[in-house]
Specification:
By secondary structure, this protein is an alpha/beta fold. Helices cover about 50% and strands about 15% of the residues. It is built from twelve helices and eight strands. Helix 10 packs across helix 12.
Length: about 270
């Protein structure tokens, strides 16, 4: 059982929902990434999604694009991202880490080498935005062979066929993108999310996390009522990009703690 699977199993036994923050590796300052990850885990993050910088983040809105640009300006690449995970693992052996990014950096690094090095670094899952399930079955098999979870995206436009295909190859959890468009766009319609989650569950046996548009405790609670996890990225990155170097970790922990309290205030579901 992977760390991700064990984490969700433990949360399910407690009737609690997972909190999954996204931050970009190397942003807003390269030297604060590991400290920020540790602070968020201590504040109640159950899984950490760590963004891999890429020059053409086509699915991301302005906030995440700026984060990628800042990280690239600092020279942060996949080698540095794996080093951050190793450093995090030196002090935290339990909180799962999912690398989230695009195919180009992984293919440039070398897929077999990436899988081997990601496992050695302590990565638990990989979400490649531009790897649709029908085009990466071999990659997913390579990940699962070393107990890394391939994480896939679903969207409001996903067909029943796409849901079924992802249900066959995904492990760990699936990430439902609640809005059409890029990260940080639009207004979250929690009623629409509540309607689509049962459709997803017909095809997918792993937990369902929901992201895009979750900006505060109230929206996190609303989404958590119908899902297994909430994913928060743009709002967190937006808060951190204006912080001083010395305050990044504290600000991240403060925000995560607020969301954690809101999620734990929900009635326990057993």
């Amino acid at each position: 059982m992977s760390r991700i699977q064990a984490t969700f199993a433990q949360l399910a036994s407690e009737g609690r929902k997972a909190l999954i923050p996204f931050v970009h590796a190397g942003d807003p300052y390269p030297e604060t990434t590991v400290e920020l990850m540790l602070a968020m885990a201590a504040a109640g993050a159950d899984v950490i999604e760590l963004g891999v910088p890429f020059s053409d983040p086509m699915a991301d809105g302005p906030v995440i694009q700026r984060a990628a640009e800042r990280a690239l300006t600092h020279g942060i690449g996949l080698t540095h991202v794996l080093a951050y995970v190793r450093a995090f693992r030196d002090k935290n052996a339990s909180t799962p880490v999912v690398l989230m990014g695009y195919a180009n950096p992984i293919e440039h690094y070398g897929i077999e080498r990436f899988v081997k090095d990601a496992k050695a670094a302590g990565v638990d899952g990989v979400l490649v935005v531009d790897y649709p399930p029908e085009e990466c079955e071999a990659f997913a098999q390579q990940l699962r062979a070393v107990e890394l979870d391939p994480i896939f995206l679903l969207a409001p436009t996903s067909s029943e066929e796409r849901m079924a295909r992802i249900g066959k190859v995904a492990s760990g959890y699936v990430y439902y993108v609640s809005l059409k468009g890029v990260t940080g766009a639009g207004h979250l319609d929690t009623d629409a999310v509540a309607q689509v989650i049962p459709r997803i569950r017909k095809h997918v046996s792993v937990p369902v996390g929901v992201g895009f548009g979750i900006r505060d405790a109230a929206t996190a609670q609303a989404v958590a009522r119908v899902s297994d996890a909430v994913v928060i990225g743009s709002r967190l990155v937006q808060l951190l990009e204006v912080e001083t170097r010395d305050n990044v970790a504290a600000k991240g922990a403060e925000f995560i703690r607020e969301i954690r309290v809101a999620l734990d205030a929900l009635p326990r579901q057993t």
